[in-house]
Amino acid sequence: MNTDYIGKPTSRVDGPAKVTGTAKYAAEYNVPNMLYGYVVSSPIAKGKITKIDAAPVLALAGVQQVFSHENVPHFAIFDRSYQDEIAPGGSPFRPLYDAEIKFSLQPVALVVADTFELARYAASVLHIEYEEVAHETKLSQHIDDAYEPGKGKIGFQPPKSRGNFGKGWKEGVAHVEAQFSHHAQHHNPMENFATTVEWLGDKHLNIYDKTQGAFNSQLLVTKIFGLSKDRARVISKYTGGGFGSGLRPQYQLLLAVMASLELERSVRVSLTREQMFSFGHRPETLQHVALATAADGSLTGINHFAVAETSQFEDFTENVVGWSGMLYDCKNVALGYRLAKLDVYTPLDMRAPGAASGSIALEIAMDEMAYAAGLDPLEFRMRNYSDHDQAQDLPYSSKALRKCYHEGAAKFGWKQRTAAPGSMRDGNLLVGWGMGGGVWDATKLPASVRASLDADGHLTVSSGTNEIGTGTYTIMTQIAAESMGLPIEAVTFVLGDTELPESPLQGGSWTAASVGNSVVEACTKLGEALLKQTQKMDSPAFKGVKIDDVQFANGQMRLRSDSTQAMVLRDVVQASGEPRIEAENSTLLAKLAMLKPPKYSMHAHNAVFVEVKVDPDLMTVHVTRVVNAVAAGRILNPKTARSQVLGSVVWGLGMALMEESVMDHRFGRYMNHSLAEYHVPVNADIHAIDVVFVNEEDDKVNPLGIKGLGEVGMLGVAAAVANAIYHATGKRVRDMPITIDKLL
């Protein structure tokens, strides 16, 4: 049998559970004696509650309690108790803490009843009076108030300028200077946020939460409610989309746990689609980019400045402009980033946070600069290719972006492009070809994994990481199967439970590298334990043999020097007299490695080529072809990897043409709070998408050579669409999304 699985297009091992409905999500766990909570949301954006009349609601048969700031227990006092793993600087929001209203749709009460329908009805008739004060939600009016953030969230560093941009600007013979903007966007995963808390008695809880990090949810619950970890088990086996929305625990988790502890009953709290617009989002961002080039088309100066929104109570930061100091070769780079406080909830990381916003401005400006310099957009990028990370002054562990340019352009047929805007047609339709690209961090974090082989020869590998639809179950099963030389059917990967070994949040495109390499480490330790057991048995061939002298294949452990000398793995376990042999990797070395200064700049790259067809009378835009060439190290599973990039491209097309959360500033509320009015691409919007995985071997980034795909595939897509529209129409739009009214 063949047990080489890494790099093979393997179907999802969790697919059958999902298509048959046996995969359970947070709101699908049916526990006995359960109550239902329904959140009441504030109709105003700023002010305070002056009166809550809960008596008529409490009089309804079946209503158990109405929680509000008037009766909610205050479990924790200090801000640090409310700060999760990635909380930004500031004072985190505390649901039902006091009468103050800080943003529209803020939770102001929780009605708990015997049925969901009764809780929803009771919430609709709960009478609350407010005193409203003026709110501020328009970013453009607060640019002058913007400030440089402090330490911000974990991992954020202020952008570093270099050289002298003023000098570089003067040296340039061609110049481009422009303003760019995009509006707030909400993640809108298919699964709404929900938490089911199972009351086990004596303040012991099983908490089924929609999250991208079970341990992060557990951390917050234990700190706020003073529970030990063994009393607050968090379970999240399946997550119906996240895109960053589940990186921080949302307020329904705290409300559900609070109600369960107070009523000593199991409680479920589910948010509505409208309430999904009441928390984190990609922040509205205003950007200014200025580029200058010499006569030969080389960049002499880059200036990239951004202002983004944050809440009144936290300083949310993201890396918007830093990529501009890294992607292209330029000695004189000025970078700036500021925040403006508005009466909205704190923004939150959203797929390719910062980079998705920054790449739009940079890559459109690069297209404009190519025209100003009289160069093809691809040739212009090639002339300014950077072989060294100038921002960090480090060599790249590997960089195959040049291959992305060549292979993507060849697949697309870029050589047939004519330069002049409006010069290409398909019948009456205007045809435009545009390109863009991007760069994203290749990160590996410490992750714990346990590997256990039972007496039947079945391998169970477990880690508390999450699965948000990216293929984690599958690729970890592949890695484990190949590591131990077992058929994939003999391997089970278990995740999403705080009783399992601890792993980081699933985000940042680091899960495959972090958990995947740890799976190999745990399997190696398991192999050592099996070898040790073998050496106790009557097997002379394995006496004095070290782990590097054996290999695992076809369900056996055998000598590399003589494959006929082999032991069947299940026989080794059975001979031990134990039901299983298991091992767990150590994260100590990984943690120590993070304390050392990096030797290399480690990133994934991509190049995107887009074709649009535009009706010259109606100015409707159709994206008819996309080629996305990606260099992301070793591709573990081309099938799931392709799906990752396809999703990224679709997301980028939505960002370019339709996706925005529309704020009515009179009310300080996002008005299109539904999937009917928050526009995302559907089947009719998507045509041919080709994904090209450029061969890239990297033995420095991590042992498996993995770089991650979740974010990088999105970068440059929106800009490439905008650039293609300009090529088709001659109209340059710098405000996303590009709707028909901006082209007419």
TrEMBL record:
List the SUPFAM superfamilies.
CO dehydrogenase molybdoprotein N-domain-like, Molybdenum cofactor-binding domain
InterPro entries from the entry? Ald_Oxase/Xan_DH_a/b, Ald_Oxase/Xan_DH_a/b_sf, Ald_Oxase/xanthine_DH-like, AldOxase/xan_DH_MoCoBD1, AldOxase/xan_DH_MoCoBD2, AldOxase/xan_DH_Mopterin-bd_sf
Recorded superkingdom? Bacteria
Q: What is a single molecular function from GO for this protein? A: iron ion binding
Q: Which residues form the Aldehyde oxidase/xanthine dehydrogenase a/b hammerhead domain?
A: 20-134
The family database entries (Pfam families) matched by this protein are listed as: Ald_Xan_dh_C, MoCoBD_1, MoCoBD_2
Protein name as catalogued: Aldehyde oxidase
Q: What is the organism field in this record?
A: Hymenobacter lapidarius
